[in-house]
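A favour, since you know our structure tokens better than I do. What I am after is a single protein written out in full by you. Could you add the entry underneath, on a fresh line?


***
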Amino acid sequence: MKRGRVLVEHRPRQVFRSASVVKILLALDYLREHRVSVADRALLGVMLRSSDDKAATEFWRRGGQGAVIGRMVR
């Protein structure tokens, strides 16, 4: 299979907000890659329960920004 080839599309022109989905991926990545302190666990909770963008930005930064995406697609 060639990489980058589209196999299936479902409403490809429709725009979907993925911001909250990304927060789940950020949390999964952080939990896999780090020892999680009590403070980190609390911040993860805020990010997920309240969809907190500031907390998400912090985990994005800690995860190496684009490196998070690379790890999650594997």
Notes: The chain has a mean pLDDT of 87.
